[in-house]
Amino acid sequence: MSDLVMPSLGADMEAGTLVRWRKQPGDAVKRGDVIAEVETDKGVIDIDVFASGVLEEIFVTPGNRVPVGTRLAKIRDLAESMPPPALPREPVSEATASTPAPQPTPRFSVVPPPPPASSLPPPPSAATSAPLARPAISPAARRLAQERNVDPALVHGTGPHGAITRDDVERAATQHAALPTATPDSAPQKQVVADERALRMRNAIAAAMAKSKREIPHYYLSHTIDMQPAMNWLAEENSQRPIAERLLYGVLLLKAVALALREVPELNALWDGKRAVPQSGIHVGVAISIRGGLIAPAIHNTDQRTLSDLMQSFRDLVMRARSGGLRSSELAEPTITVTSLGDTGVESVYGVIYPPQVALVGFGKVAERPWAMNGGLFARQVMTATLAADHRVSDGHRGGIFLNAIARLLQAPDKL
Amino acid sequence: MTRDEIRKHVLDSLVSVAPEADVASLSGNVSLREQLDIDSMDFLNFVIAIHESLQVEIPERDYAKLITLQGCVDYLAARIKD
């Protein structure tokens, strides 16, 4: 049995609002499936599951804002055997919940009794054989739900036996109106919502950056890299590729960073409050500029991916960062971040490490510069790479080895 | 295909990568990337969108000709004639 909890999607995140369940109790879930949508300061994020199993029980209904770590649901892992038979359970009577203190995590569970232990485990389409019993809804409440564009299935009923009253619908309608994603709204209202979201995102970034500078003793290194071989190789490679498969030079940088981390693994660690914990997977977070701010979701196992694969993932990530659909696993799991400001035309970027990571790699633009080589002076495509690193975890010597490894890897682009 | 039709395709492709772009007020001879704050990923997606809607091959070395709106229309008009 595993608990699905409200994940921490950033150093600064304290709470999130459950917007929508995408699976219902009884549904099978497999690793990577999106199980719910959560509203955070970074926008609406899809929560994806880590382990395959069956969603057993939901503890938080849509519209509720809960702290990071709050149990959201129970998932029965595939490997477990069937639970023993239990007495049929009544749905928790919501009439008792209408006491002065509001229940922050109301429960409801599948109503029909579980099958006896001797029977086979329920098939994956358990949802159809053990449907979620819909609480009663009065005709007046149903009419109101239609008028206010509220889905009765998502309304928390406080009437007898969890029945849905007009008040319940009214409350749900107001809550949904407060959530930017719920009902279609007019253009000016959309702008207000967009501005609010941008402000919240800016505040979240501010909190994370302030925390980083307060707590992490940063040191900075820079190294200028000869990019001529990489750019030559890229032009040749892209001339052979159909337009939709062409590579941006950024994926060469991501791959080089990932491979360099294999050589200097202490930079692929997360700070747990007392020490750096090296991470087994290399998941490079890519800083992506979006309306209102910045977000840096991870490409999982960057070191194991081909350049074509990285390009597809990168492109997909940018699209979802800008128009919705980023997943919790992408936001919670970067082990290092790369920020490339080449497009803005700056030479180099000295960044701020994103906690709990212990390093940040910055790349400036690729530009033609005078370059001395073999005793002669040439015009070469060069780029400045920088490392911001946590001095509690690494020293300049190791940081220097890391930047040199990136430079070396970029001299052999065909091997990336 | 007329130049106006080509222009429309180009503007549609632009809107698909920069939905908030005010295409009506775009200057024909100023760099698109400057006017619209689109990055290299957006630009690549823009070129792909043009490729898909007009069915023309656009080699990477020709991207420099697509810097301005006018440049796009001129380039594509010549390519489509071929």
Indicate the topology.
The complex is a heterodimer of chains A (416) and B (82).
Chain A: E1 2-5, E2 15-21, E3 28-29, E4 34-40, E5 43-48, E6 53-58, E7 65-67, E8 71-77, H1 126-129, H2 139-147, H3 166-178, H4 187-215, E9 218-226, H5 228-239, H6 249-263, E10 269-271, E11 276-278, E12 284-286, E13 288-290, E14 293-295, E15 298-299, H7 307-323, H8 328-332, E16 336-340, E17 359-363, E18 367-373, E19 376-390, H9 396-410
Parallel strand pairs in A: 12-16, 16-17
Antiparallel strand pairs in A: 1-8, 2-4, 2-7, 3-6, 4-5, 6-8, 9-19, 10-11, 12-15, 13-14, 17-19, 18-19
Helix pairs in contact in A: 2-3, 6-7, 6-9
Chain B: H1 3-17, H2 32-36, H3 40-54, H4 69-81
In short:
Chain A is 29% helix and 24% strand. Chain A is built from 9 helices and 19 strands.
Describe this structure in words.
The complex is a heterodimer of chains A (416) and B (82). Chain A contains nine helices and 19 strands. Chain A is α+β, with helices and mostly antiparallel strands and 416 residues long. In chain A, strands 9, 12, 15, 16, 17, 18 and 19 form a seven-stranded mixed beta sheet that branches. In chain A, strand 13 (288-290) and strand 14 (293-295) form a beta hairpin. Mean pLDDT of chain A is 83; it is low at 86-133. Chain B has 82 residues and is mainly α. Chain B has helices at 3-17, 32-36, 40-54, 69-81. Chain B is globular. Chain B starts with a helix and ends with a helix. The interface between A and B is medium-sized, with 14 and 13 residues.
